[in-house]
Backbone:
């Protein structure tokens, strides 16, 4: 049975609003002299990037792993989340003794530009007006996010990454890193992702955005001026997205057709089924930690992503002569980023003579498998990073 | 559960020599120039790639089985999960110095197309396969009237990844047909040791347990 906790809506929303400008994590500020060049042609300045760092940078600055988060993730990859109080989103992979070993590597994870956890985005204050950006915020892309991350690394004095790692939208960023800054990336682990967003995925995102914008509380994107929040719209968007992150088998295993807190159906539109009340819970808890406008901007960024388009439609050209080591991982039951998409990436890498490994992990847990405790995936990640570390001359942690 | 716990089903179970390497692998490794670029098609658990790496070879692999790929990635090898029958087409011309097909030809759906692809992708190809013309095979079919099974090829006919067996003689004919030049040919006995080099073809076809061929394009 799913445990649905009552939400402390007011406090959570206030905390989230505070995090947008004053994150409880580290933050790098870039002044008017260091604008972020956006693909839409606008220079964003000043701006800030919120990030978390774990572990120690070694003497020759060669042990940095950059973790890129997924659509609704953030920089709190391996620590308790300041708004939800939940553990870090990738604790299966990141931590002491784990594949992304914080005793061995200097691990950096930044909130993407356009996000709502401290990096400049639509829920941040526009310094020019003193008001929140809202829809005045320029449209951003995955390459913009990566450009901002590169500026953060410059700011931290890190020239080369030992590895860039990410799943889903984070995997898109990892791949973008290897084509935009090949000389800065020694190895890349790209999980459950693709070099372009498929028409089906764009369609799901459009469904989510329309749900947000159809909510009367959205108010043309300026809901914050009336202290409103399009909860129902964003909740529905999250429910729809959440279904795409799972698989029929996983949903069936978890819930089947069981009823929630009752013996017989009520013959009404209450949440009779466990799966309904689970989705409602997913929707409403998401609303407390995420900003509706950020959701619009970040889904849009994924939709626009297409690495091949930047190389005259030939994906292999993106990696011609690359020296980066790649590991691409997909999951059998992922229908958002199916194995065929990963295979296309691998074919292009092979055509560019890249050193690439590829594995498809058998699981019924769907797209979300990359966030879950799937032993085979964790083993592969460990093995790939281990071998890359020894090739990079990184010795084991002295523990 | 770890990767190592999972069952892995190879196409053939071949004897290992004193130093821990398979006889055909040692022979193949000798045919590869140190420092060259190699693609091992059907690389299994990556044993040959590891042997080649000790010789300074830049090796890549393709393997059909998920378990095989996982074993390889765990060893730090660059191996891609894929199917020789469908995936070779995605590799550009002359991408590698050598393309190796070790004990995999008999498990492909279209051996001829695969062989042509090997020589398109690589400047040279090295192919090894079990010889179905070996006298033990012939004897089993003649005396028992059943599909032969040996220590090296223990699977039953209905439960085997091997679907296109051939003899050394068959293979030589195919090479001739698709205009491939045989640079070197070696037959190995049951223990993975090379047979007499100057023996006639019929002798190899009768007593060779495996054939190992170094091939190039005949221009």
Residues:
């Amino acid at each position: 049975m799913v445990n649905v906790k009552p939400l402390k809506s007011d406090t959570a929303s206030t905390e989230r609003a505070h995090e947008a400008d004053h994150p409880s994590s580290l933050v790098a500020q870039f002044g008017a002299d260091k604008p972020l060049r956006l693909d839409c042609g606008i220079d964003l300045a000043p701006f800030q990037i919120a990030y978390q760092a774990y572990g120690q940078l070694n003497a020759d600055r060669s042990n940095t792993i950059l973790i890129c988060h997924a659509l609704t993730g953030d920089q709190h990859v391996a620590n308790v989340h300041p708004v939800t109080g939940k553990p870090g989103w990738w604790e299966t992979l990141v931590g002491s003794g784990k594949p992304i070993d914080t005793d061995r590597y200097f691990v950096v994870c930044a909130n993407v530009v356009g996000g709502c956890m401290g990096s400049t985005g639509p829920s941040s204050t526009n310094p020019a007006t003193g008001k929140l950006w809202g829809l005045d915020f320029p449209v951003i892309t995955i390459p913009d996010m990566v450009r901002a991350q590169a500026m953060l690394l410059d700011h931290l004095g890190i020239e080369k990454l030992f590895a860039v790692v990410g799943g889903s939208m984070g995997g898109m960023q990892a791949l973008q890193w290897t084509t935009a800054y090949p000389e800065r990336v020694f190895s890349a682990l790209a999980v459950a992702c693709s070099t372009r967003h498929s028409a089906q995925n764009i369609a799901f995102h459009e469904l989510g955005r329309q749900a947000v914008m159809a909510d009367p509380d959205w108010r043309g994107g300026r809901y914050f001026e009336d202290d409103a929040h399009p909860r129902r719209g964003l909740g529905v968007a999250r429910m729809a997205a959440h279904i795409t992150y799972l698989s029929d088998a996983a949903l069936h295993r978890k819930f089947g057709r069981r009823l929630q807190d009752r013996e017989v159906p009520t013959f009404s539109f209450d949440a009779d089924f466990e799966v309904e009340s689970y989705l409602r819970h997913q929707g409403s808890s998401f609303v407390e930690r995420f900003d509706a406008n950020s959701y619009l901007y970040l889904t849009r960024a994924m939709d626009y992503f297409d690495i091949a388009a930047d190389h005259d439609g030939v994906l292999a050209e993106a990696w011609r002569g690359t020296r980066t080591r790649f590991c691409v991982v997909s999951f059998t039951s992922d229908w958002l980023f199916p194995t065929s998409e990963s295979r296309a990436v691998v074919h292009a890498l092979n055509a560019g003579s890249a050193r690439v490994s590829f594995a498809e992990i058998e699981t019924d847990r769907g797209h979300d498998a990359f966030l879950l405790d799937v032993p085979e995936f964790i083993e592969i990640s460990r093995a790939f990073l281990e071998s890359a570390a020894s090739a990079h001359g990184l010795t084991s942690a002295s523990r | 559960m770890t990767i190592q716990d999972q069952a892995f089903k190879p196409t053939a179970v071949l004897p290992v020599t004193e130093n821990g390497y398979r006889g055909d692998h040692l022979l193949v490794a000798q045919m590869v120039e140190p420092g060259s670029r190699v693609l091992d098609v059907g690389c299994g658990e990556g044993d040959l790639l590891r042997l080649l790496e000790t010789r300074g070879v830049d090796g890549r692999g393709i393997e059909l089985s998920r378990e095989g790929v996982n074993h390889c990635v765990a060893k730090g090898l660059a191996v891609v999960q894929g199917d020789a029958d469908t995936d070779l087409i995605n590799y550009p011309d002359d991408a590698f110095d050598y393309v190796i097909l070790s004990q995999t030809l008999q498990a492909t759906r279209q051996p001829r197309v695969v062989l042509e692809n090997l020589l398109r992708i690589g400047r040279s190809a090295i192919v090894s396969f079990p010889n179905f013309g070996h006298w033990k095979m012939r004897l089993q079919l003649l005396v028992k009237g059943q599909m032969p099974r040996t220590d090296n090829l223990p699977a039953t006919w209905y439960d085997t990844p091997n679907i296109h067996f051939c003899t050394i003689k068959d293979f030589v004919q195919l090479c001739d047909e698709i205009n491939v030049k045989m640079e070197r040919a070696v037959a190995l006995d049951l223990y993975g040791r090379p047979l007499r080099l100057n023996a006639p073809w019929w002798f190899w076809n009768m007593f060779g347990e495996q054939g190992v061929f170094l091939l190039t394009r005949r221009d």
